[in-house]
Amino acid sequence: MSYICVKGLTKRYDDVVAVDNISFEAEEGEFVALLGPSGCGKSTTLMMLAGLEDPSEGSIVFNGQDVTKAAPGKRGLSMVFQSYALFPHLSVGENILFGLKARKVSNNERNARLEEVLDLVDLRAHVNKKPGQLSGGQCQRVALARAIVSRAPICLMDEPLSNLDAKLRNEMRTEIRALQKKLGLTVIYVTHDQVEAMSMADRVILLNQGRIEQNGKPEDLYNKPESTFVAGFIGHPPMNLIADAQMVLGIRPEHIALSEGAGLSTSVINCDYHGANTLIAVDYRGHALKFILQGHHNHPVGTPLNIQWQRGQEHYFSDQNGRRLAVPTVSHFLTEGLS
Amino acid sequence: MSKLSNLFMTVCAWALGIAWILPLLYAFWAAFHPAETATSFDLTAPLTLENFKTAWQQAPFLSYMINTVVITLMILIVQLVLCTLAGYALARIEFWGRGVVFALILMQLMVVPEILIVENYQTVASLGLVDTYLSVGLPYFASAFGIFLLRQTFMTVPQDLENAARIEGCSRLQIIWKVYVPLARPTYLAFALVSISYHWNNFLWPLVVTNTENSRPLTVGMAIFGAPESGVDWSIVSAGTLISISLLLVLFLIFQRQFVQSFMNSGIK
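^ inputs. structure came back:
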């Protein structure tokens, strides 16, 4: 049995279903990201795992123990909040030790653990400061330290990096991942940022409207999206999804290349220069396709361009329910122009 | 124009300030002078401490003072406990009828306490509590003002702080004590100041409900000096007044800065 085992978890508010029959598992030491757009139910799921919200239905099992109805403090977990949730009236050290004091851990033990964790998160110089005197990144470290010092085997993180600027976010991403591996923590990490999920997690669970769209390794979500929603959510810029009478064809912008002579004859709609590359939108028989070219390109509107991609890089989805189709039985109109 | 209105404001402020402090200044004057010169304001009049001595001997000030301190502190402590619990419940616990309960408490703010004196006296009498400390404090324990003030303050505490404390295994009472109370410190200080000054000076209810010096506070005790049958000696009345306000006055002068700051911080002026 897996370390974390969630079965049929559902949360209803009056007549709104926030989380709809979610089931997943996580192994010990695994880093699982709950990914999805805002309002998809990922934070509600995390709150139920933490015990801060009561599930309407379903069960939660941690390490063989059913904790569905257990109090948050008795589930053996720690949590890092988006707002950091540091106590403004306590110093950094007191914040970190808050939980140990509440759990009546002895003074010696407390100080030993504080020493250890201060080095881990590099906060020794700030131990006597109040949270108000710290920068965002430092506050984030205090929140991490508070989670680590409890030595809880499970750590829940609720968008911990979304209040940081882009540069700091990249640094903290690496730092959190390194700490997680070093300490062998089982982490459930909620985020709306696919880069965070893809780069940090062992496994990504993509949620949409309270349901799991796909649960798999980051590369599976990218290479084998199970639905048009996954295809459109993962990848930047998102996959081109073109429907014809029978099905939906998906092709990633980064897989499309210019071709000499052969391929689809298209005309330029727009060029968007991004520095290292240019995002070009072209028109093919009334359908817009986007693709990426290295370097700077500035084609006037209407310039004819021939594009192609290697056969086999396209994805097919049902036009009925958006689910992935294994092998197309008939050919899509887009592929007819390709060799 | 603005200069003129500035001048007007300054004059008004001074006028109000002087009007407010005059009785106190007069009390000081009268208390330190013999009765004959109490109303003549002769700067060469001899100073004396005789009035204090007389006043102290005429009334059991020490027991009045103790009564006032005990009653005021008892009311404050019970108020802080009750208002904290009620304020937290109204701010953070969802229960059926919460809005109605809060509306009822707000309504209590609009009722003048004096209206209820007869009703309250009957209640206290039927409990057999007349002439006890408890009887003086009982009507004031569940302070609507305090509940309202703390509820508003607790509402501004981020929910995540409570969640973090719950994850760390704190019980509800621990959360209130370790998270909400420290964060609401300025509000507590402001409320304590209002409560202490109100109950130190409260007169009508203690007059009704106390009979002997066992429970009579300073304000009621002082009234004896002003009673027609004992004759009004302004010097002695003033000396008694100074004795009764001395403790508060000293405390206020010491903590003046903190008081003003806590009022600014808690948003009441």
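Chain A touches chain B through 23 residues (CB under 8 Å). The mean pLDDT of chain A is 91.
thumbs up if we can close this ticket
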